[in-house]
Each structure stands twice: as C-alpha cells, then as structure tokens.
Amino acid sequence: VCLCEGLGNMTLFDKAQALKFPKLVEINFDHCSDLEELPGSICSLTSLERLSVTNCHLIQKLPDDLGRLRSLRLLRLSTCPSLSMLPPSICRLQQLKFLDISLCMSLKDLPMEFDQLPKLKMLGMNECSGLKMLPKALAKLRSLKRVICDEHTEQQWLAIKASAMPNLTVDVVEERFNLDWLDD
C-alpha cells in the first residue's frame, strides 16, 4: 500500500478477510498520508514475516496485539514522527531480527521488556529525539549485533557496549532532518 489516501477512514480488512490470506508474508504501508492507526485485524496475519510502516506521518499508535505476529522477523516503523509508543506486546515477537524506529521523534521510551526479544540482531534508532533514556534491559539482548543511532543516544549505547556487549557495533549517523533553522 503506497502513496495512499483514504486509509485513515477505512477499515483495511476485518478479521475474516485477514484469514483469507493465510500465507501472506509481507505488508508495506508507505506514504499513507492519512493513516492514523494500523487496524488491529492485521494481528490476525500470523504468517506475516515483514511489516513496514514508513513515512506515515499521522500514525500515532500500533495495535496492542502486535505481539500476536509470531512469525514477524522484520518490523520497520521509520519516519512515523507522530508514533508515540510501542505496545508492550512487541516484546513477544520471538522471531524479530530487525527493528527500525528511525525518525520516530515522538517515541518517549521503549518497553522495559525489550530483553525478551531473543533474536533481535539489528536496531535502527537514529533521530529518535524523544528517547532520552534507554532501558537497562537493552544490555541483556545477547543476539544484538548492530545499532544505528545518532549522537543523542551514542554515549548510552557505548556504555552498554562497554559494560555488557563488547561485540556490539554502534554506528552513529548524522542528523538528516533538522528544524533548528526555524529558531533563527
């Protein structure tokens, strides 16, 4: 689903329709300009391995039952600046290997149970300016190999690396979007 309008006022599919796609493995929502919330029925797609919600500027929340997507390996939520929280059930995604929350500036914190993601290998979180403190549970992610962050969380990640994860690669990217010029 790309460059769509009208999804914000529409039920994408109900639970019965979702069950008609038992082998669906990937869904992409990109530039859906009026999408404010993913439909909860998406959580019935238990074969889903990849879910991308990118450049959806109005999306504020994810379904509480997101953790039902037991086959999910990739979750990309980049450039959703209004997304204010990740549901705690995200920590039940036992197969999740890749999580990208880059440019989700309204995220205030990560679920404390993040250490329950046993297969998470890569975390992209650059330009998440709303995240001030990382949960201590991140140090327990033994499978985490690479973090992409910005200068706001770099020191926290380097401290985690030094204390508990010596093999972690911390890549720091420069800020791409900056509205500081508005203050001039």
Automatic annotation (TrEMBL):
**Gene3D superfamilies in alphabetical order:** Ribonuclease Inhibitor
Recorded hits in SUPFAM superfamilies, A to Z, give: RNI-like
- Where in this chain does the entry annotate a coiled-coil region? none
In terms of Pfam families, this protein maps to: LRR_1 (PF00560)
Matches recorded under InterPro entries: Leu-rich_rpt (IPR001611), LRR_dom_sf (IPR032675)
Record PANTHER family? PLANT BROAD-SPECTRUM MILDEW RESISTANCE PROTEIN RPW8 (PTHR36766), TIR-NBS TYPE DISEASE RESISTANCE PROTEIN-RELATED (PTHR36766:SF30)
Protein's name in the database? Leucine rich repeat-like protein
Species assigned in the record: Picea sitchensis (Sitka spruce)
